[in-house]
Amino acid sequence: xHRALFTxxxxxxxxxxxxxxxxxxxxxxxxxxDFSGVDCxxxxxxxxxxxxxxxxxxxxxxxxxxCSQLAAVHIQRLQDAYGQSVAVIGVINAQANxxxxxKARAGVGFVVLADxxxxxxRSYKVERSVHTVLISRTGKTxxxxxxxxxxxxxxLNAQLAALLRIPAKSVSTEDAPVKxxxxxxxxx
Length: 188
Hints:
Blueprint: H1 2-22, E1 36-38, E2 44-46, H2 47-51, E3 56-61, H3 66-82, E4 87-92, H4 96-106, E5 111-114, H5 119-123, E6 132-135, E7 141-145, H6 150-164
Parallel strand pairs: 3-4, 4-5
Antiparallel strand pairs: 1-2, 3-6, 6-7
């Protein structure tokens, strides 16, 4: 009798653990995968070093996706509003030179990390671009936004302000889609 109960409990634990590790990241309950890489300006950065001083917004960009370019404007507005109190990192599936060209075309000032082999994309289990992850200084996924819309941008603003323990900044969501929108699929 005890052996059957033990086997049942063990199988239940394994099933839950496998489900969490193979599914997408979720809000507030998972450690954000650490990474390091080179941004499009040639600077080396790592998640754990960024989190030592501020929360991080990871915004995933598909290099050829028009939605990525449109969404980047809104992510830049958050960077502008919160300045140095948050690290905004765009993760793009491109070599550094292509990432630099994309950044200039999009007209954004936030850091863009070159991820040509999609290592960071895969570690975060991201399937499509315009996926955004807010990471608290404790290294936990505070919020995950697999799509973007005016409402998700407002929520991201509120969640970031809560992490910083300050009132939410005024950030325009003008031209953001009303319905949640996902970008292009990342290549396999």
